[in-house]
Fold this sequence. Notes:
The complex is a heterotrimer of chains A (202), B (80) and C (218). Chain A has helices at 5-26, 30-49, 54-81, 95-99, 102-117, 119-137, 144-166, 171-196. Chain A folds into two domains: 5-81; 95-196, no CATH class. Chain A is mainly alpha-helical. Chain A is built from eight helices and no strands. Chain B has 80 residues and is mainly α. The longest helix of chain B has 25 residues, at 53-77.
Amino acid sequence: MMWGEYSIGLLLVLVSGVIGFAALAIEIDDLHRLLLLDLVEISSLGIIALLGTDLAEALVLPGLTVGIAELLALSQIYITKERLKDKPVKGLNIEVIRKADAPVVISAFLVVYGLILSGFTGGGVAGLGLVFFFMSRGYQEDLNMLEMASGISWAIWIFAFFVFMFLPQYWFVALMCAAVGIVLKVTVKMSLVGTMWGEVRE
Amino acid sequence: MIVTPEFVAGMILLIGGTVVTAFPRPKNYVTQLINLEIPGWGLLLVMLHYNESLALFTFAAVSVLSTYIFVRIIQKKEGA
Amino acid sequence: MSSIGGVPFYILEFGDELVYFTPYTITLFLLALVFTVLVILSRPERQVDIAFGGDAYTTKQILKDEMRFRRFMSIACGLASMGAMVTGDIFNFTLFTAMVGITNVGIVAAVKSPHVQNAAYQYGLVALSATVPLFGAAAVYAASTGSLSMIELARGTLPAVPIIAKALLVIGVVGEGMAPFYAAKAEMFRAPGAPYVIMCSLSSLLIFLRVVEVVMLG
């Protein structure tokens, strides 16, 4: 074969991207289109990851962030468009989830994993853990204070970036501030997404 | 050209998973969502072949997150 | 370095990502800046419906918190286009373009009319599937030349960028928002509340102008 590993890999990923786009073109239903959009996102990440260098790793992370941001934005519009916002969703009525210890363990694992990953995606995972915890125990909270906390932590994150640029000798403090700030912000946002979409417990 | 088993398996899963997700049988939302995991696994194997560990962890986490969002939307759409 | 935009006046370094100001990029940057300041300072206009055959007209009211959210989205869109105008890194450019796409969806998303929301959803689908060729182009740039910096590419010492990467970059920008190319973006303009809606059109125009310069660099 005259082609190396990179060329074959690139060819296969591009073919899969073309298949995804073809299916997207034929599709009519909107929710199916949203799922196919996630599929072509995987193709784009594949093209970046095939580079194989450290640069590729650094480029995959913003690509993932863009993917999640678009998914959140489009899903909100879909729910508003189809007028599903006030539709009650039956909460989980399974006794094992309500009373046992397993959901606590899973949520704790997700929160710790998210904190270690940190950044936008880490905050998302930590938020997911919190949402799972709230869903399993059936809390319905008032969330205005949390929104204010998330706004302040985002300002801390931006401030940490300015410290990076202009006062690089204090980089460690800035790193800790940035990590804590962004994780707090995204965690709270994710929890809001979960609980504010409305749940009816019966 | 160093072709390891995980690269070949990853590529096969990526292509096969894309075909199966693009044209799911039976055609409902849950089937397509479950099939969406298959090319995801293929991508994880490719990242493993290139030792991109940070990208791997983050992609796994983001996959969990997006699956949760999709499940919420499908729950809302298909009623109680 | 002298590119088609002229000799750069100043190159600002954020680590190894360079922000460079040539006469061309400064012009585009100032345009985006002026328009963003206008968006901050102005109040939304009310969309006028004229009764056919007479002089009567009705105006659509815009609620206060809807206006705040849309103004925030317009400012974010303006900031993203300002960033895209002066950046010196190909991957930064693609990220800013994706951000412009998302904020464009956000600008019209708060409007309650179902027609506008449907158009915004369809536009969002196309704009966000256009991030695939954008990222693909950045990856092929990095794979074929080993560098993502526009200043390095303009110097001419690196291997030539294959034409497919430039084509993918242009396709990505066209898919994100060139208005003549698809109708959903034009349908979004039926949303009441200029000047926020005009930011959609201006940002994609500026990004298209910049991508022409980027593609002719390497």
